[in-house]
User: What shape does this take?
Amino acid sequence: MSEARTHRSIKRAVDPATEERPDSDVALLPDEALVGHWRAKYVRTLVIGDFCVLLVALAAAQVFRFGLGEARVGGLNFSYPVLGAGLAVLWWLSLHVHQARSPKIIGHGAEEYRRVIVATFRAFATLAIFSLLFKVDASRVYLATAFPLGLLGLLAERKVARVRLHRARAQGRALSQVLVVGGERSAAQLAGWFAKHPSAGYEVRGVWVPDEEMPLNAMLEGGLRNVPIMSSNVDLAEALETSGARAVVVTDTEHLGHESLRHLTWELEGTGIDLFLSPNVLDVSSSRLHLRDVSGMPMLHVEEPQYAGAGRVGKRLFDTITALLLLVLLSPVLLVTAVAIKLTSRGPVFYRQERIGRHEQPFRMTKFRSMVTDADAQLEALREHNETVVLFKIRQDPRVTPVGRFIRRYSLDELPQLFDVVRGSMSLVGPRPPLASEVAKYSDRMRRRMYVRPGMTGLWQVSGRSDLSFEEAERLDLAYVDNWSITGDLMIMLRTIRAVARGQGAY
Assistant: This one.
């Protein structure tokens, strides 16, 4: 079908001559469209919650420094409660200026947390400049207490809000209904992806293929339910009304063409309905995607994979220092675990096994022994019970000791790998360390995971651990290698704490 016919189908949604919209959901103005919408409520909660968190943090800092007595700020004739209120307002405004409550970034990804951190540092930088200009002599202990308390409080508040949001989405609430504009194949892939990741908050409720004709009762098989497919026999307004969409995702621009795509943006203007263009790329971090203007045409530039950064000195220093600190802090746990293993089963405390590291170099990985001493000899007899393709995993492995079952559940058996991190054989975060027999079966694509040091934890650890299929675990490892960043490592480490505390997916 020609682009002109597609353009006419879109054009029927609004008559440019009269600028009148049909009586449907498309006719809603932005404020009306968002009344009662989950995003408006979510943002409103953050607006109020941020200010409350800041007031509590600043009040706690004052009590910590001065107790319950009255104290006044040096150089100015006002008390610390007044300074605290002013700083709370400055901090709150900094969050607003840096768009830390933008609906575009709340609820998913690390960008929301990054903006909170940047806004906090800049708020205190502004305070420092103000103090120098007006010679304000505020207590350094007060500020040194308020700064981390407020920042941690804001991050914790957002984490709690995000957990509640994800729980609501898992129950089918707080979702944005999506109309996909494009072909059936790409629409089915998108519907399946959203159904697999409900925390993203999108649900495909309709597909519109404006340059094709098909039966009115056509349905797309995929996602959580059957999705109606609409074609050139309906216009944009009818497609939006049928799907109840609050967002439009264009997956195949050839079904629209440049001119019709521009008109689509015009027709959605003022409706409160989001418009997205899907580049149809998966497992590529947004930090590697950059929009560039090429002679007036926007082009999406995909940066090269980031695995080179994972081998730099900065990551190595971070791994070494953090591993040494953890060894000191966790030394009581290490000692108790070692004693429990020694007293309850015969054999050595540690189990060492050859694994393949960065650039396919072998190394000896250290773990607490969680099995009987002749576990390797019993492997062949249990081979028929294996639950995976490449790895050997069974849920009720008879070789695991009672203490071993406990330490496996909470990943205590992996703590000695901190010594491997200090030695440089492993990293705190990275792909799962494979056996030589596994590497021998790798395709060229899978060998990319050997570009970086294997990790004690990784995306596979925080996404299901042993409950993941081998294919899914390998996909996550490749995504980590291609999209490495120090921020990503920190996020994975924080998520690891939660995964280990729950003890799910480990056996």
